[in-house]
Specification:
Blueprint (H helix, E strand, L loop, with lengths): L9 H11 L2 H17 L7 H18 L6 H4 L5 H14 L11 H17 L5 H16 L10 H9 L20 H7 L1 E8 L5 E7 L5 H12 L8 E7 L13
Parallel strand pairs: 2-3
Antiparallel strand pairs: 1-2
Helix pairs in contact: 3-5, 3-8, 5-7, 5-8, 6-7, 7-8
Bound molecules: fe (ii) ion (2 copies).
The site of one fe (ii) ion (FE2) has 5 residues, from helix 6.
Length: 254
Amino acid sequence: MIELETNDNPKLEQIETYVNNHPHIQQYWRSANVIAKDRMKLNDHGEKHIEIVANRGLSLLRLLKEDLTPGIMEDYDHSYEDAEVVLATAALLHDTGHIIHRYKHSEYSLPIAADLIEELLGDMYDKQELVIFKSEILHAIQSHHKKANPLTLEASILRVADSLDIEKGRARHDKDLSNQSIHSISAMSIENVDIVRGDAKPVTISIEMSNSSGIFQMDQLMRKKIEGTGLEDHIHVRAEIDGEEKKIVDEYEL
Ligand SMILES: [Fe+2]
Ligand SMILES: [Fe+2]
């Protein structure tokens, strides 16, 4: 079950209800995680990741909409409500390609998502409108990884939001030392992520860390996701360690 922060957007409520009443959609997230988490020992790419990315994306969109215009409003004269539909649906479906393989998963997600978009949005829009939604949502999904730069606000936000599921819970797999890497150790040091209105830039992403290794998440992962989105001047990321630095590992061996 996922909980979307719908802010009374009736279309988001309809999507949330549909997803929660159709186990086959939830199965995509479970099967994605069998590949990503169970077989490849990566961090979580299941339902929790999807929920976090969708809600953090919506938070970013709600803060950025004063300064930037979503693609579906700019080029198709659709409503702001529909921009939230594009972003949330793209977030829900962006990692479904993992059911085939992690490698090239953003491409593998496209045909899967194309079918599911018809299912999720088919009652809300006519056939012609559905083509527009497919275009906007599939563009966002395709560009959530680094090589293809996003060309819409919704796509840019999805790519950034995908990098914000970094709290220690996301390691969400075993603590076996043999599987530990700078990815898992740095993730274990992230206590909290907050998205708030900023001063110099419209958005501040405020990160609370227990250990300096968390900087890896920002410097190596988040930085690459923000670069090329056009949001570099709109998002300020800051981290702090509150109190004493916490020890995360006792020893490490190769
Ligand atoms: Fe992905
Ligand atoms: Fe993802």
